[in-house]
């Protein structure tokens, strides 16, 4: 297993739709490396474009949320949302947007079809944090990042905050912050 470097916005791979894949040993190795990367970086989900790979693959492991149980580690190959309902706004972060936390409107309930790491078709119905995470990761696979879910003005403000945050982090690293 290996920890993979995280791709940070505005890298173009993050805004490019991914291609579907067939599960094989190479895909399984990528899934396991992505899981390790997600855990090391304290994420609850990670999509392949976030490690520079334009393939329709993601990993998710969401903790218990109220009375909803933890998801456990899910390997998602070629996932797609086949049903969704409800609407709620809640806080989200993204490993590809270090330092940025925004409120995003999402469906509250989703059903996702995907193939697991053994190549078996699966159907998952989710609500709560898992539903949010699945929508966030599947958006990544469609080349959509979470700021794209904001209206035009909020998106521009979020990107301004994000860029200023990156500059502050770079200045801090360079030891020139006053
Ligand atoms: Co993300």
Beta-strand content bin = 15-25%
The geometry reads as globular
What's the order of the H and E elements?
HEEEEEEEHH
Poorly predicted tracts of residues: none
Number of helices: 3
Mean pLDDT metric: 96
Order of neighbouring strands in the sheet with most strands: 1-2-3-6-7
Bound molecules: cobalt (II) ion
Question: How many β-strand stretches?
Answer: 7
- Helical content, roughly? 25-40%
**Could you tell me the radius of gyration in angstroms?**
16 Å
Ends apart, CA distance between termini: 40 Å
Profile the largest sheet. Answer: 5 strands, antiparallel
- Based on secondary structure, the structural category is alpha+beta
Overall description:
The longest helix has 22 residues, at 152-173. The chain is built from three helices and seven strands, in the order αβββββββαα. The termini are far apart. It is of the alpha+beta class and 178 residues long. Helices cover 29% and strands 24% of the residues. The strands form two sheets. The protein has a five-stranded antiparallel beta sheet with strand order 1-2-3-6-7. Bound molecules: cobalt (II) ion. Residues 94, 96, 136, 140 line the site of cobalt (II) ion (CO).
Descriptive keywords:
178 residues; alpha+beta; five-stranded antiparallel β-sheet; two-stranded antiparallel ribbon; 3 helices; 7 strands; globular; binds cobalt (II) ion
Topology:
Blueprint: H1 25-40, E1 45-47, E2 57-60, E3 74-85, E4 88-92, E5 102-106, E6 109-115, E7 121-127, H2 128-141, H3 152-173
Antiparallel strand pairs: 1-2, 2-3, 3-6, 4-5, 6-7
The structure holds cobalt (II) ion.
Cobalt (II) ion (CO) binds next to helix 2.
